[in-house]
Give the backbone structure.
Amino acid sequence: MENISFRTTVLPLSDKLFRLALRITMNKAEAEDVVQDTLLKVWEHREEWEQINNLEAFAIATCRNRALDVMKRAGRNTEKLDEMAHFSSQTPQEQLEANEQISLVNRLMDDLPEVQRTIMLLRDIEGKTYQEIAQTLDISETQVKVYLHRARTKIKERIWTINT
């Protein structure tokens, strides 16, 4: 088995963990706290790293669970996630339209059930495989595909309704 180092294996996951926590909590400060708690939890399990099949999936699952715990305690009084697309080859009008589309998709994703939102984030934004998502969320690959299909369909329908 490969030599696992906190600095080279776990710390590079911080950005992914932050994006996941931010998507769930929709609050930057809470997301940062969740990531710190996650990193601490992964560190506390360092004696078990060799037995963990996928350390990244373990970290993502831990982060997700911690973020959900924070949301349960805090309720939904959070600030919205602002993502801006910056494409230098686009005109200002095209950039504005792209930003509006991203904002719309983010709002629609926020309205999805939590499991659909998480799967969509892991698959479409983080680029995880169905198998990795299934391991992370402890569900079958078939369930991952069904939830993802339902989430994408719901967003497409809402965008089509808004644009017509």
